[in-house]
Design brief:
The structure is a single chain. The protein is built from seven helices and no strands. It is mainly α. It has one domain: Arp2/3 complex 21 kDa subunit ARPC3 (Orthogonal Bundle), CATH 1.10.1760. The two termini are 20 Å apart.
Length: 184
């Protein structure tokens, strides 16, 4: 192997380990969130989305997608829903949320803060999950859970966005990894 390929391989291994670290954080936060009582099985406050929000400025497209998929699988394992219809809610919500957040961060970051990105991601997730609940579970009665579901998502996404903003602006760990990302 050449010196260049050794350096490239080492960089790839470090990036994979970094995705694994964020996925482990998502798994931990999913476990914490699982302990919080929910009025509807798929209604979560979104703690496990924090690594996705933080990862926006650190991960490439494929790495971000891998993190989102690992979050879905981790939540399914933690909640025991990996082989049930409930995983569809996690999949739909996470994919729509990650997609919207990624697009907003990449193309609108100078106009939208992490709080706004977090809100947009939560609303995308909640609307997707409400549509799935309408089709799979509740039919037209899903409209009755929509207001509290959207309000909780809105409120918690503000808190997560504020936390992410503060973490990104004050963390030396984040600054170091962001610097490495721009050099890669």
């Amino acid at each position: 192997m050449t010196r260049h390929s050794d350096s490239r391989l080492r960089s790839t291994v470090i990036r994979v380990e970094f995705v694994a670290l964020l996925a482990a954080l998502a798994l931990f936060l999913s476990t914490v969130e699982y302990l919080i009582p929910k009025p509807v099985p798929f209604m979560r406050i979104g703690l496990a989305n924090l690594p996705l929000i933080i990862g926006l400025g650190l991960l490439h497209e494929r790495e971000y997608l891998l993190l989102a998929l690992l979050k879905i699988l981790g939540q399914g394992l933690v909640t025991g829903t990996i082989f049930s219809y409930i995983i569809l809610f996690s999949f739909g919500g996470t994919v729509s949320s990650a997609f919207i957040m990624f697009l907003l961060y990449r193309y609108g970051r100078r106009y939208v803060s992490l709080v706004g990105i977090s809100i947009a991601g939560a609303m995308a997730s909640n609307i997707t999950q409400l549509q799935l609940s309408r089709v799979i579970l509740f039919g037209d009665a899903a409209r009755f859970i929509a207001p509290p579901f959207l309000m909780v998502g809105f409120a918690t996404s503000i808190v997560l966005g504020l936390f992410a903003e503060r973490f990104v602006s004050r963390s030396s760990w984040y600054a170091e990894h962001a610097q490495q990302e721009h050099l890669a």
